[in-house]
Design a protein that fits this description.
This protein has 8 helices and 12 strands. It has about 250 residues and is an alpha/beta fold.
């Protein structure tokens, strides 16, 4: 599904990614862990095409397409979704109108007819139940007045509506209490299929107690320096990253 080769990227003229290599197959969940500033969020932003990040070397292939030749909106329509670490407000744009425009743009890309209002509202009701998000929030502007937990649930709700094939969860667990974390993680798990894949960016084991990764990668100084199974995340939880740095020295 996604193949990254020798990826180098800068932001604000500073090189952050210094040769990332990663292959993700259909149905796989890959956890990405590392110290602050290692490049985890940068990788997610490069994949979705954030224009603030410049790729200086390497390539990314998504379902046999050259991802770096695609505009940001084309990547989204093709099925790539980023759950933001800090979701922003969009004043003046209601959640319902925002989601309907986004869903129909993706349907157009897939060669499908736009959803009728009644069908769209029915699907929206069904998807809201996955993350226990209140109907009243749908009448507000996007994320306006939402609590931190409601914003994170809203990200998974949007994922449910758009049905992407590749998702990036960027520290979705940050700022969530135990109950909110469980709801968000369970919502994500209900959306998984053998054809969908994801990168889960996190500092902590607790999210991975709910979303079990097939692989765990450690990113240090812009490179993936260690890969293992789910047990690697627990070892990092118990011992931090110093032992990995010592192995590299």
């Amino acid at each position: 599904m996604l193949e990254i080769k020798n990826l180098h990227a800068t932001v604000g003229g500073k090189e952050i990614l210094k040769g990332v290599n990663l292959t993700i197959k259909d149905g796989e969940i890959h956890a990405l862990m590392g110290t602050n500033g290692a490049g985890k969020s940068t990788l997610g932003n490069v994949i979705v095409g954030n224009p603030a990040y410049e790729v200086t070397e390497g390539c990314i292939t998504f379902n046999e397409q050259n991802l770096l030749e695609m505009k940001t909106e084309e990547r989204a329509r093709a099925g790539i979704f980023l759950s933001f670490q800090q979701p922003t407000e969009i004043p003046g744009v209601s959640m319902t109108n925002f989601m309907r425009a986004a869903v129909n743009a993706r349907r157009e890309y897939l060669g499908k007819e736009p959803l009728k209002s009644t069908d769209f509202l029915k699907i929206m009701r069904e998807k809201r139940k996955l993350v226990e998000i209140d109907q009243k929030l749908m009448n507000r502007s996007v994320n306006e007045g939402f609590s931190g937990g409601e914003r994170k649930r809203n990200e998974i709700f949007q994922m449910a509506m758009l049905e992407p094939t590749f998702c990036i969860l960027d520290e979705t667990d940050s700022g969530l209490d135990v109950d909110a974390l469980r709801i968000v993680a369970e919502g994500f798990n209900k959306l998984r299929t053998p054809e969908t894949s994801a990168i889960v960016i996190t500092h902590y084991q607790r999210l991975l107690d709910y979303i079990t990764p097939d692989f765990v990668h450690v990113l240090i100084d812009g490179r993936i320096v260690k890969t293992g199974d789910a047990s690697l995340a627990q070892k990092i939880e118990d011992n931090g990253f110093d032992w990995i740095k010592e192995e590299l020295a």
